[in-house]
């Protein structure tokens, strides 16, 4: 059994503030260790279910948050950037299932550290006219490859977003949001036990790898800056629906890769901090 784990940071047990998840934050070093603990709980669960190959992708910010020496020795690590598939680097049709650890809710939601990929620069996103964030786009891209997203961890808002998008996803709530920078934290030992148990159970009981679902999809993004939309309109196949919204139609995961290029262009044109 081959398992893929995409590990973000905002939804990790115990973390609530930008200072916990950004490299220049006063609590970042502690935060990256807590990130490893959540990931390792998922790895233990996958092993208990019989996984023989586990690939972890560091999917947060600089994508160099997980220290290799803190990761469970049974797992391999994809680390660093840029990566063509970003938060889903290394995911391929041969994987039997995907697990998302430490994920957060989309921009505009009341979840802890909520945003969509680029802090404030991305104001909203839609996939086939359906509001979407990192969770939904990850699920849809994995499904296009024939890999089901079977489990996700994060705060209660992120977990609700995941099940609203796909009610077959097993979720583990590790904290309850009290706003964008505060939460009621579950005891870490309990949260880790629940992550391990949930991953072990879902991998042991539900159907895994499925047929790829390649079909045309439309991704639209509303940017904060008109300059981003104007510049992106110069890419063949990209159109604008208003002064700040770009869209493109194509098959996932190619559309996901194209979105990665959009973000790199946007980053070159703007300098807004993600949690200001």
From TrEMBL:
Check the record and name the SUPFAM superfamilies matching this protein: Dipeptide transport protein
Binding sites annotated in the UniProt record for Zn(2+) 2: 8, 60, 104, 134
- Sorted alphabetically, which Pfam families does this protein's record hold? Peptidase_M55
- Protein's UniProt keywords contain Zinc: yes
Record's Gene3D superfamilies?
Dipeptide transport protein
Q: Which InterPro entries match?
A: DppA_N, Peptidase_M55, Peptidase_M55_sf
Residues involved in Zn(2+) 1 binding: 8, 10
Keywords carried by this UniProt record = Metal-binding, Zinc
Name of the protein described by the UniProt record: M55 family metallopeptidase
């Amino acid at each position: 059994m081959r398992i893929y784990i995409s590990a973000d940071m905002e939804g990790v047990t115990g973390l609530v503030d930008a200072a916990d998840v950004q490299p220049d934050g006063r609590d970042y070093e502690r935060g990256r260790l807590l990130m490893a603990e959540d990931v390792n709980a998922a790895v233990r669960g996958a092993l208990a279910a019989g996984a023989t190959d586990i690939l972890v992708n560091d999917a947060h910010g600089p994508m160099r948050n997980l220290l290799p020496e803190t990761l469970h020795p049974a797992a391999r690590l994809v680390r660093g950037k840029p990566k063509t598939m970003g938060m889903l680097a290394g995911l391929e049709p041969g994987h039997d299932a995907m697990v998302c650890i430490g994920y957060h809710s989309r921009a505009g939601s009341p979840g802890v550290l909520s945003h969509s990929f680029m802090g404030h620069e991305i104001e909203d996103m839609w996939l086939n006219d359906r509001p979407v964030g990192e969770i939904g786009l990850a699920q849809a891209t994995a499904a296009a490859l024939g890999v089901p997203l079977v489990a996700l961890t994060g705060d209660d808002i992120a977990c609700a977003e995941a099940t609203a998008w796909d009610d077959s996803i097993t979720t583990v709530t590790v904290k309850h949001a009290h706003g964008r920078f505060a939460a009621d934290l579950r005891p870490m030992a309990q949260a880790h036990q629940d992550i391990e148990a949930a991953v072990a159970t879902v991998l042991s009981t539900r159907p895994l790898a499925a047929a790829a679902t390649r079909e045309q999809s439309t991704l639209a993004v509303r940017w904060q800056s008109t300059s981003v939309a104007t510049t992106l309109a110069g890419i063949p196949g990209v159109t604008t629906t208003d002064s700040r919204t770009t869209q493109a139609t194509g098959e996932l995961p190619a559309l996901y890769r194209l979105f990665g290029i959009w973000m790199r262009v946007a980053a070159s044109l703007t300098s807004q901090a993600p949690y200001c």
